Amino acid sequence: MSHLSLDWREAPTTSQIVARIERLFTELDANRAVGLRLSSTTAKGAVVLEELDGVHLFLRKDEKITRRFNKGTVAYWKGMFELGASMADHLMSQEDVMNRFVEYKECRPKDMTMAQVRKNIKDLAVTIGVHPWALGIKPEGNGQISVPRGVTITMKLVKNMQLYRDRDVLGGRPRDYLRETAVQRQSGATTISPLIDSLTVAVKEHAPVRAVLVIEHRNLKQLMSAEEIGDVILIMTSGCPGSATKELLHMLYRSEQLASVPFLYFSDHDFEGVQIFYNLKYGTVTSAWCNQTEVCPKLRWVGPSRKDLLESPAAFKAQHEAQFRRDRPHQSDDNVIKAMDSWESKMSKKLNNKLVKSTKRDRSLFAGFCKAGWLDYEPELKAELEMMLESASKFRLADLTQVGNLYAKVYVRDKVEDLSPVKVRTESVKAKQPISVRSPTGERYKDIDSQALLDSVPEPPASEADSLASQVPTAVPMTKTQKEELLKNLEALFV
Protein backbone atom coordinates (compact mmCIF):
# COMPACT_ATOMS: atom_id res chain seq x y z
CA MET A 1 0.00 0.00 0.00
CA SER A 2 1.40 3.41 -0.98
CA HIS A 3 1.51 6.28 1.47
CA LEU A 4 1.46 10.02 0.96
CA SER A 5 4.49 11.73 2.50
CA LEU A 6 5.30 15.34 1.70
CA ASP A 7 8.56 17.11 2.56
CA TRP A 8 8.88 20.81 1.76
CA ARG A 9 12.65 20.36 1.22
CA GLU A 10 11.91 18.16 -1.80
CA ALA A 11 9.39 20.46 -3.43
CA PRO A 12 9.12 20.80 -7.23
CA THR A 13 10.20 24.00 -8.94
CA THR A 14 7.96 27.04 -9.21
CA SER A 15 7.02 26.33 -12.84
CA GLN A 16 6.18 22.71 -11.98
CA ILE A 17 3.90 23.80 -9.11
CA VAL A 18 2.06 26.26 -11.36
CA ALA A 19 1.68 23.56 -14.02
CA ARG A 20 0.12 21.20 -11.47
CA ILE A 21 -2.38 23.87 -10.40
CA GLU A 22 -3.36 24.50 -14.01
CA ARG A 23 -3.67 20.78 -14.74
CA LEU A 24 -5.99 20.32 -11.76
CA PHE A 25 -8.53 22.82 -13.06
CA THR A 26 -8.09 21.68 -16.68
CA GLU A 27 -9.10 18.16 -15.64
CA LEU A 28 -12.09 19.59 -13.79
CA ASP A 29 -13.23 21.51 -16.88
CA ALA A 30 -12.82 18.47 -19.15
CA ASN A 31 -14.34 15.78 -16.92
CA ARG A 32 -16.49 17.84 -14.55
CA ALA A 33 -14.89 15.81 -11.73
CA VAL A 34 -11.49 15.76 -10.12
CA GLY A 35 -9.66 13.75 -7.48
CA LEU A 36 -8.91 15.68 -4.29
CA ARG A 37 -6.84 14.92 -1.21
CA LEU A 38 -8.37 16.60 1.84
CA SER A 39 -5.47 17.68 4.06
CA SER A 40 -7.14 17.04 7.42
CA THR A 41 -9.31 14.06 6.60
CA THR A 42 -10.31 11.69 9.39
CA ALA A 43 -12.29 9.40 7.12
CA LYS A 44 -12.29 5.74 8.09
CA GLY A 45 -9.29 3.93 6.65
CA ALA A 46 -7.63 7.08 5.30
CA VAL A 47 -5.06 7.17 8.14
CA VAL A 48 -3.52 4.04 9.63
CA LEU A 49 -1.04 3.31 12.42
CA GLU A 50 1.67 1.20 10.85
CA GLU A 51 5.30 0.26 11.28
CA LEU A 52 7.71 1.90 8.85
CA ASP A 53 11.45 1.19 9.11
CA GLY A 54 10.98 -0.13 12.64
CA VAL A 55 8.96 2.91 13.75
CA HIS A 56 5.22 3.04 14.50
CA LEU A 57 3.49 6.18 13.25
CA PHE A 58 0.28 7.38 11.64
CA LEU A 59 0.49 7.23 7.84
CA ARG A 60 -1.82 8.69 5.20
CA LYS A 61 -2.97 6.42 2.39
CA ASP A 62 -2.31 7.93 -1.01
CA GLU A 63 -5.94 7.98 -2.04
CA LYS A 64 -8.16 10.73 -3.45
CA ILE A 65 -11.85 11.44 -3.25
CA THR A 66 -13.79 12.45 -6.36
CA ARG A 67 -15.54 15.77 -6.13
CA ARG A 68 -17.71 16.64 -9.10
CA PHE A 69 -18.50 20.03 -10.54
CA ASN A 70 -22.26 20.47 -10.43
CA LYS A 71 -24.91 22.84 -9.20
CA GLY A 72 -24.29 22.00 -5.54
CA THR A 73 -20.52 22.55 -5.69
CA VAL A 74 -20.32 25.68 -7.84
CA ALA A 75 -19.52 27.96 -4.87
CA TYR A 76 -16.83 25.59 -3.61
CA TRP A 77 -15.06 25.30 -6.98
CA LYS A 78 -15.41 29.03 -7.65
CA GLY A 79 -13.54 29.81 -4.42
CA MET A 80 -10.93 27.12 -5.06
CA PHE A 81 -10.31 28.40 -8.59
CA GLU A 82 -9.86 32.00 -7.41
CA LEU A 83 -7.50 30.82 -4.69
CA GLY A 84 -5.49 28.63 -7.08
CA ALA A 85 -5.25 31.37 -9.72
CA SER A 86 -4.06 33.90 -7.13
CA MET A 87 -1.48 31.45 -5.82
CA ALA A 88 -0.18 30.79 -9.35
CA ASP A 89 0.15 34.55 -9.97
CA HIS A 90 2.13 35.03 -6.78
CA LEU A 91 4.40 32.10 -7.56
CA MET A 92 5.11 33.29 -11.13
CA SER A 93 5.79 36.85 -9.95
CA GLN A 94 8.92 35.47 -8.27
CA GLU A 95 8.08 37.31 -5.08
CA ASP A 96 8.37 35.56 -1.74
CA VAL A 97 5.18 37.17 -0.42
CA MET A 98 3.03 34.27 0.80
CA ASN A 99 4.69 34.14 4.19
CA ARG A 100 1.82 33.73 6.63
CA PHE A 101 -1.86 32.98 6.50
CA VAL A 102 -2.71 36.52 7.67
CA GLU A 103 -1.24 37.88 4.41
CA TYR A 104 -3.75 36.07 2.24
CA LYS A 105 -6.29 38.91 2.43
CA GLU A 106 -5.29 40.20 -1.00
CA CYS A 107 -5.94 36.81 -2.63
CA ARG A 108 -8.86 35.70 -0.49
CA PRO A 109 -12.21 35.25 -2.25
CA LYS A 110 -14.83 37.65 -0.89
CA ASP A 111 -17.21 34.94 0.31
CA MET A 112 -14.50 32.79 1.94
CA THR A 113 -13.57 33.11 5.63
CA MET A 114 -9.96 33.04 6.80
CA ALA A 115 -10.51 29.57 8.29
CA GLN A 116 -11.73 28.34 4.89
CA VAL A 117 -8.71 29.92 3.20
CA ARG A 118 -6.36 28.04 5.52
CA LYS A 119 -8.10 24.75 4.92
CA ASN A 120 -8.50 25.14 1.14
CA ILE A 121 -4.88 26.17 0.60
CA LYS A 122 -3.75 23.04 2.45
CA ASP A 123 -6.21 20.91 0.47
CA LEU A 124 -4.96 22.41 -2.78
CA ALA A 125 -1.30 21.89 -1.83
CA VAL A 126 -1.76 18.28 -0.71
CA THR A 127 -3.85 17.51 -3.82
CA ILE A 128 -1.08 18.61 -6.19
CA GLY A 129 1.50 16.80 -4.03
CA VAL A 130 3.29 19.82 -2.55
CA HIS A 131 3.93 20.55 1.11
CA PRO A 132 2.12 23.82 2.02
CA TRP A 133 5.35 25.34 3.32
CA ALA A 134 6.88 24.98 -0.15
CA LEU A 135 4.30 27.48 -1.40
CA GLY A 136 5.80 30.12 0.85
CA ILE A 137 3.62 29.50 3.90
CA LYS A 138 5.53 29.82 7.17
CA PRO A 139 4.17 28.15 10.29
CA GLU A 140 3.92 30.17 13.45
CA GLY A 141 6.67 29.40 15.95
CA ASN A 142 5.46 28.81 19.51
CA GLY A 143 8.03 26.46 21.04
CA GLN A 144 11.36 27.27 22.68
CA ILE A 145 14.70 25.51 23.04
CA SER A 146 17.66 25.96 25.39
CA VAL A 147 20.94 24.09 25.57
CA PRO A 148 23.57 23.60 28.30
CA ARG A 149 27.19 24.70 28.23
CA GLY A 150 29.39 22.94 25.74
CA VAL A 151 26.53 22.36 23.26
CA THR A 152 25.92 24.32 20.05
CA ILE A 153 23.08 23.64 17.60
CA THR A 154 23.76 25.29 14.24
CA MET A 155 20.76 25.59 11.93
CA LYS A 156 20.43 26.63 8.31
CA LEU A 157 17.11 28.43 7.82
CA VAL A 158 15.36 29.20 4.55
CA LYS A 159 15.01 32.96 4.15
CA ASN A 160 13.58 32.96 0.60
CA MET A 161 11.38 30.04 -0.39
CA GLN A 162 11.13 31.04 -4.06
CA LEU A 163 14.91 30.97 -4.51
CA TYR A 164 15.11 27.81 -2.40
CA ARG A 165 12.57 25.98 -4.62
CA ASP A 166 14.44 26.92 -7.80
CA ARG A 167 17.99 26.60 -6.46
CA ASP A 168 18.87 23.82 -8.90
CA VAL A 169 17.38 25.69 -11.87
CA LEU A 170 18.75 29.14 -11.10
CA GLY A 171 22.06 27.89 -9.73
CA GLY A 172 21.97 30.39 -6.89
CA ARG A 173 24.40 30.48 -4.02
CA PRO A 174 23.21 29.03 -0.70
CA ARG A 175 23.70 32.38 1.03
CA ASP A 176 21.03 33.84 -1.29
CA TYR A 177 18.28 31.64 0.15
CA LEU A 178 19.71 30.34 3.46
CA ARG A 179 20.85 31.98 6.64
CA GLU A 180 22.71 30.38 9.50
CA THR A 181 21.90 30.72 13.19
CA ALA A 182 23.22 29.02 16.31
CA VAL A 183 21.62 28.11 19.62
CA GLN A 184 24.08 28.21 22.50
CA ARG A 185 23.99 28.46 26.27
CA GLN A 186 24.35 32.26 26.04
CA SER A 187 21.24 32.42 23.86
CA GLY A 188 18.97 31.37 26.73
CA ALA A 189 15.52 30.09 25.81
CA THR A 190 15.27 30.65 22.05
CA THR A 191 12.08 30.58 19.98
CA ILE A 192 12.15 27.67 17.54
CA SER A 193 12.43 28.94 13.98
CA PRO A 194 10.47 27.33 11.13
CA LEU A 195 11.91 26.16 7.80
CA ILE A 196 15.07 24.50 9.11
CA ASP A 197 16.82 23.06 6.07
CA SER A 198 19.44 21.23 8.15
CA LEU A 199 21.13 21.33 11.54
CA THR A 200 24.26 20.08 13.24
CA VAL A 201 24.79 19.38 16.92
CA ALA A 202 28.26 20.04 18.30
CA VAL A 203 29.01 18.65 21.77
CA LYS A 204 32.28 19.24 23.58
CA GLU A 205 33.90 16.12 24.97
CA HIS A 206 33.89 17.38 28.56
CA ALA A 207 30.14 18.18 28.51
CA PRO A 208 28.12 15.30 27.00
CA VAL A 209 24.35 15.69 26.61
CA ARG A 210 22.56 13.49 29.14
CA ALA A 211 19.02 13.79 27.75
CA VAL A 212 16.64 15.77 25.58
CA LEU A 213 13.74 16.93 27.75
CA VAL A 214 10.39 17.93 26.27
CA ILE A 215 8.17 19.89 28.66
CA GLU A 216 4.64 21.03 27.95
CA HIS A 217 4.72 24.45 29.62
CA ARG A 218 6.93 27.41 28.83
CA ASN A 219 6.25 29.02 32.23
CA LEU A 220 8.26 26.27 33.95
CA LYS A 221 11.52 27.58 32.47
CA GLN A 222 11.93 29.71 35.61
CA LEU A 223 12.01 26.51 37.70
CA MET A 224 13.99 24.42 35.25
CA SER A 225 16.88 25.27 33.01
CA ALA A 226 19.02 23.11 30.77
CA GLU A 227 22.02 23.94 32.96
CA GLU A 228 20.49 23.43 36.40
CA ILE A 229 18.88 20.09 35.57
CA GLY A 230 22.25 18.90 34.39
CA ASP A 231 23.54 18.91 30.80
CA VAL A 232 20.23 18.48 28.95
CA ILE A 233 18.68 20.00 25.84
CA LEU A 234 15.34 21.46 26.93
CA ILE A 235 12.39 21.92 24.55
CA MET A 236 9.22 23.67 25.71
CA THR A 237 6.22 23.08 23.43
CA SER A 238 4.09 25.87 24.95
CA GLY A 239 0.96 23.75 24.82
CA CYS A 240 0.01 22.01 21.60
CA PRO A 241 3.24 21.93 19.56
CA GLY A 242 3.43 23.57 16.16
CA SER A 243 4.94 21.92 13.10
CA ALA A 244 8.21 23.85 13.54
CA THR A 245 8.69 22.40 17.02
CA LYS A 246 7.88 18.87 15.83
CA GLU A 247 10.28 19.13 12.92
CA LEU A 248 13.11 20.33 15.17
CA LEU A 249 12.52 17.46 17.59
CA HIS A 250 12.54 15.01 14.66
CA MET A 251 15.85 16.42 13.40
CA LEU A 252 17.42 16.13 16.87
CA TYR A 253 16.22 12.52 17.02
CA ARG A 254 18.02 11.83 13.74
CA SER A 255 21.25 13.54 14.82
CA GLU A 256 24.19 11.14 15.17
CA GLN A 257 25.52 13.16 18.10
CA LEU A 258 22.34 12.33 20.06
CA ALA A 259 21.98 8.69 18.95
CA SER A 260 22.43 7.29 22.48
CA VAL A 261 20.65 10.12 24.29
CA PRO A 262 17.17 9.46 25.77
CA PHE A 263 14.26 11.74 24.81
CA LEU A 264 12.01 12.29 27.87
CA TYR A 265 8.58 13.91 28.04
CA PHE A 266 7.16 15.65 31.13
CA SER A 267 3.69 17.18 31.23
CA ASP A 268 0.56 17.79 33.25
CA HIS A 269 -1.00 14.57 34.49
CA ASP A 270 -4.08 14.83 32.27
CA PHE A 271 -5.43 13.68 28.92
CA GLU A 272 -4.41 16.85 27.06
CA GLY A 273 -0.79 16.35 28.11
CA VAL A 274 -0.94 12.77 26.88
CA GLN A 275 -2.45 13.92 23.59
CA ILE A 276 0.59 16.17 23.03
CA PHE A 277 2.85 13.20 23.77
CA TYR A 278 1.29 10.93 21.17
CA ASN A 279 1.27 13.72 18.57
CA LEU A 280 5.01 14.15 19.09
CA LYS A 281 5.82 10.42 19.09
CA TYR A 282 3.32 8.91 16.63
CA GLY A 283 2.24 11.96 14.64
CA THR A 284 -1.10 13.68 14.18
CA VAL A 285 -3.99 11.99 12.41
CA THR A 286 -5.10 15.18 10.68
CA SER A 287 -1.65 15.86 9.20
CA ALA A 288 -0.50 12.32 8.56
CA TRP A 289 0.88 13.34 5.15
CA CYS A 290 3.86 15.02 6.87
CA ASN A 291 4.36 12.77 9.91
CA GLN A 292 7.50 11.14 8.55
CA THR A 293 9.37 14.43 9.02
CA GLU A 294 7.79 15.35 12.36
CA VAL A 295 7.68 12.32 14.69
CA CYS A 296 10.15 11.47 17.46
CA PRO A 297 9.95 7.66 17.98
CA LYS A 298 12.46 7.74 20.87
CA LEU A 299 10.26 9.98 23.01
CA ARG A 300 9.32 8.43 26.34
CA TRP A 301 6.62 9.49 28.79
CA VAL A 302 8.15 9.64 32.28
CA GLY A 303 5.52 11.34 34.37
CA PRO A 304 4.85 12.65 36.81
CA SER A 305 2.40 9.97 37.83
CA ARG A 306 -0.24 10.13 40.55
CA LYS A 307 2.07 8.10 42.78
CA ASP A 308 4.92 10.56 42.19
CA LEU A 309 2.80 13.47 43.38
CA LEU A 310 1.42 11.75 46.49
CA GLU A 311 4.88 10.49 47.49
CA SER A 312 6.54 13.87 47.02
CA PRO A 313 6.21 14.91 50.73
CA ALA A 314 8.08 11.78 51.81
CA ALA A 315 10.66 12.26 49.05
CA PHE A 316 11.27 15.89 50.01
CA LYS A 317 11.01 15.43 53.78
CA ALA A 318 14.77 15.11 54.41
CA GLN A 319 15.50 18.36 52.57
CA HIS A 320 12.66 20.15 54.35
CA GLU A 321 13.96 18.93 57.71
CA ALA A 322 17.48 20.13 56.93
CA GLN A 323 16.17 23.60 56.10
CA PHE A 324 13.93 23.57 59.18
CA ARG A 325 16.92 22.83 61.43
CA ARG A 326 18.95 25.62 59.83
CA ASP A 327 16.12 28.10 60.34
CA ARG A 328 15.40 26.95 63.93
CA PRO A 329 18.76 25.81 65.31
CA HIS A 330 17.61 25.67 68.95
CA GLN A 331 14.71 23.25 68.43
CA SER A 332 15.09 19.86 70.09
CA ASP A 333 15.11 16.70 68.00
CA ASP A 334 11.69 15.70 69.39
CA ASN A 335 10.18 19.02 68.32
CA VAL A 336 11.73 18.71 64.87
CA ILE A 337 10.28 15.22 64.41
CA LYS A 338 6.82 16.41 65.47
CA ALA A 339 7.04 19.39 63.12
CA MET A 340 8.07 17.19 60.20
CA ASP A 341 5.29 14.67 60.81
CA SER A 342 2.77 17.50 60.97
CA TRP A 343 4.16 19.05 57.76
CA GLU A 344 4.02 15.73 55.91
CA SER A 345 0.42 15.14 56.99
CA LYS A 346 -0.69 18.62 55.92
CA MET A 347 1.09 18.34 52.59
CA SER A 348 -0.49 14.96 51.87
CA LYS A 349 -3.96 16.41 52.46
CA LYS A 350 -3.15 19.45 50.34
CA LEU A 351 -1.93 17.33 47.44
CA ASN A 352 -4.95 15.03 47.62
CA ASN A 353 -7.12 18.12 47.26
CA LYS A 354 -5.19 19.04 44.11
CA LEU A 355 -6.35 15.89 42.33
CA VAL A 356 -9.18 16.47 39.84
CA LYS A 357 -11.75 14.03 38.44
CA SER A 358 -11.91 13.21 34.75
CA THR A 359 -14.57 14.79 32.55
CA LYS A 360 -16.78 13.65 29.70
CA ARG A 361 -14.25 15.09 27.25
CA ASP A 362 -11.47 13.09 28.96
CA ARG A 363 -13.42 9.88 28.41
CA SER A 364 -13.92 10.80 24.77
CA LEU A 365 -10.18 11.43 24.36
CA PHE A 366 -9.35 8.09 25.99
CA ALA A 367 -11.75 6.28 23.69
CA GLY A 368 -10.04 7.94 20.73
CA PHE A 369 -6.60 6.89 22.01
CA CYS A 370 -7.74 3.29 22.29
CA LYS A 371 -9.37 3.32 18.86
CA ALA A 372 -6.23 4.71 17.23
CA GLY A 373 -4.25 1.81 18.67
CA TRP A 374 -1.09 3.60 19.81
CA LEU A 375 -1.78 2.95 23.52
CA ASP A 376 -1.01 -0.73 22.90
CA TYR A 377 2.66 0.30 22.70
CA GLU A 378 2.48 2.36 25.93
CA PRO A 379 1.22 -0.06 28.66
CA GLU A 380 2.48 2.02 31.59
CA LEU A 381 0.79 5.15 30.30
CA LYS A 382 -2.41 3.27 29.52
CA ALA A 383 -2.62 2.04 33.12
CA GLU A 384 -2.14 5.61 34.34
CA LEU A 385 -4.97 6.87 32.11
CA GLU A 386 -7.29 4.12 33.32
CA MET A 387 -6.55 5.22 36.90
CA MET A 388 -7.50 8.80 35.96
CA LEU A 389 -10.89 7.55 34.78
CA GLU A 390 -11.52 5.49 37.92
CA SER A 391 -10.66 8.13 40.54
CA ALA A 392 -9.58 11.76 40.88
CA SER A 393 -6.01 11.72 39.56
CA LYS A 394 -5.45 14.69 37.27
CA PHE A 395 -3.02 17.42 38.35
CA ARG A 396 -0.60 19.95 36.91
CA LEU A 397 3.13 19.49 36.57
CA ALA A 398 3.60 22.68 38.60
CA ASP A 399 1.87 21.00 41.57
CA LEU A 400 5.18 19.25 42.29
CA THR A 401 6.34 22.59 43.71
CA GLN A 402 3.75 22.41 46.50
CA VAL A 403 6.24 20.61 48.76
CA GLY A 404 9.05 23.00 47.84
CA ASN A 405 9.94 25.42 45.07
CA LEU A 406 12.87 23.28 43.98
CA TYR A 407 11.18 19.90 44.04
CA ALA A 408 10.01 19.95 40.40
CA LYS A 409 13.62 20.45 39.36
CA VAL A 410 14.82 17.75 41.79
CA TYR A 411 12.19 15.33 40.43
CA VAL A 412 13.17 15.91 36.80
CA ARG A 413 16.88 15.76 37.62
CA ASP A 414 16.46 12.43 39.39
CA LYS A 415 14.54 10.99 36.42
CA VAL A 416 17.35 12.06 34.10
CA GLU A 417 19.90 10.49 36.43
CA ASP A 418 18.00 7.19 36.43
CA LEU A 419 17.44 7.00 32.65
CA SER A 420 20.51 8.62 31.11
CA PRO A 421 23.54 6.49 30.20
CA VAL A 422 25.73 9.49 31.08
CA LYS A 423 25.75 9.89 34.84
CA VAL A 424 25.87 13.20 36.63
CA ARG A 425 29.18 14.96 37.14
CA THR A 426 30.65 15.26 40.64
CA GLU A 427 29.61 18.90 41.02
CA SER A 428 25.92 18.03 40.40
CA VAL A 429 25.08 15.40 42.99
CA LYS A 430 21.66 13.80 42.53
CA ALA A 431 18.99 15.49 44.67
CA LYS A 432 21.71 17.61 46.27
CA GLN A 433 20.61 19.55 49.35
CA PRO A 434 21.16 23.32 49.34
CA ILE A 435 24.08 24.53 51.44
CA SER A 436 23.33 27.08 54.14
CA VAL A 437 25.63 30.05 54.68
CA ARG A 438 25.03 29.87 58.44
CA SER A 439 27.16 27.95 60.90
CA PRO A 440 25.72 24.53 61.82
CA THR A 441 24.49 25.03 65.35
CA GLY A 442 21.87 23.34 67.52
CA GLU A 443 21.26 20.21 69.58
CA ARG A 444 23.23 17.87 67.35
CA TYR A 445 26.47 19.88 67.70
CA LYS A 446 26.60 20.60 71.48
CA ASP A 447 28.75 17.64 72.40
CA ILE A 448 31.36 18.04 69.67
CA ASP A 449 34.88 18.36 71.11
CA SER A 450 36.67 21.07 69.16
CA GLN A 451 40.11 19.64 70.00
CA ALA A 452 38.98 16.19 68.83
CA LEU A 453 37.69 17.81 65.66
CA LEU A 454 41.11 19.32 65.01
CA ASP A 455 42.86 16.06 65.80
CA SER A 456 40.60 14.22 63.33
CA VAL A 457 41.91 16.24 60.39
CA PRO A 458 44.51 14.02 58.66
CA GLU A 459 48.03 15.24 58.15
CA PRO A 460 48.89 15.85 54.49
CA PRO A 461 51.52 13.62 52.89
CA ALA A 462 55.07 14.74 53.34
CA SER A 463 55.46 15.65 49.68
CA GLU A 464 52.25 17.70 49.77
CA ALA A 465 53.26 19.40 53.01
CA ASP A 466 56.62 20.36 51.51
CA SER A 467 54.86 21.71 48.42
CA LEU A 468 52.54 23.82 50.54
CA ALA A 469 55.39 25.09 52.65
CA SER A 470 57.35 26.11 49.55
CA GLN A 471 54.40 28.16 48.35
CA VAL A 472 54.36 30.19 51.61
CA PRO A 473 58.02 30.93 52.38
CA THR A 474 57.19 33.74 54.79
CA ALA A 475 54.84 31.69 56.99
CA VAL A 476 55.39 32.24 60.73
CA PRO A 477 54.55 29.46 63.26
CA MET A 478 51.61 30.19 65.60
CA THR A 479 52.35 31.00 69.19
CA LYS A 480 50.73 29.11 72.08
CA THR A 481 48.48 32.12 72.81
CA GLN A 482 47.32 32.24 69.18
CA LYS A 483 46.50 28.53 69.22
CA GLU A 484 44.45 28.90 72.43
CA GLU A 485 42.58 31.85 70.91
CA LEU A 486 41.82 29.79 67.77
CA LEU A 487 40.45 26.91 69.86
CA LYS A 488 38.19 29.27 71.79
CA ASN A 489 36.77 30.66 68.55
CA LEU A 490 36.10 27.15 67.22
CA GLU A 491 34.35 26.15 70.44
CA ALA A 492 32.11 29.20 70.17
CA LEU A 493 30.94 28.09 66.74
CA PHE A 494 29.62 24.77 67.99
CA VAL A 495 27.90 25.84 71.21
> Cα distance, first to last residue?
81 Å
Mean pLDDT: 81
By DSSP (H or I, 4+ residues per run), the number of helices equals 18
* Coarse structural class: alpha+beta
Computed CA radius of gyration, to the nearest angstrom: 31 Å
The largest sheet has its strands arranged as 9-6-12-11-13-14
Report the count of strand segments.
14
Using the alpha-carbon principal axes, give the shape. Answer: elongated
Biggest sheet features:
6 strands, mixed
Oligomer: single chain
Helical percentage: 40-55%
**Strand share of the residues?**
5-15%
Please describe what this structure looks like.
With about 500 residues, the protein is α+β, with helices and mostly antiparallel strands. The chain contains 18 helices and 14 strands. The strands form four sheets. A six-stranded mixed sheet has the order 9-6-12-11-13-14. It has a three-stranded antiparallel sheet with strand order 1-4-3, with no helix packed on it. Strands 8-7-10 form a three-stranded antiparallel sheet. Helix 1 (about 15-30) packs antiparallel against helix 2 and helix 11 (about 310-325) crosses helix 12. The longest helix has 22 residues, at about 335-355. About 30% of the residues are buried. The model is unreliable at about 425-455 (pLDDT under 50).
